[in-house]
Amino acid sequence: MYLSRAEVKKALHVKEDLPQWSPCANIDYRRSYSDMSAQYKKVLSKQKRVLVYNGDIDMACNFLGDEWFVDRLGLPSVKPRGEWMYKAESGTQQVAGFFKEFKDLTFVTVRGAGHMVPTDKPRPALKMFINFIANKPFSQQ
Length: 141
Known about the structure:
Layout: H1 6-11, H2 37-45, E1 50-55, H3 63-72, E2 77-87, E3 93-102, E4 105-110, H4 117-120, H5 122-133
Parallel strand pairs: 1-4
Antiparallel strand pairs: 2-3, 3-4
């Protein structure tokens, strides 16, 4: 798998002695925090941009919970909730999902995607990552 390749691990600064990566591996996760607000606020206080995204049919991490979470951070709103678009394989513009923009944080949903957004909806996922990395607005497609 891609994330288990030596050069990828090196680029991501992953320790070499860890087991091979696999999606949803049987790892004994332990909850360290009951609320991530402080961690988000710490990153945001350093003027780092943050992308929070969910597939809108994700049964593991419901998009409404994440939307409520980012709303409760109390960040200044830049753009209210609206739809964002992507170019489908047919060449037509299609609704990719919804977004909200805050100061230094963008919340995005991907229509029809489950927990593994890039696997479920690769075209809109790529558009979402390009928009975020290039700091392009989601509202003007």
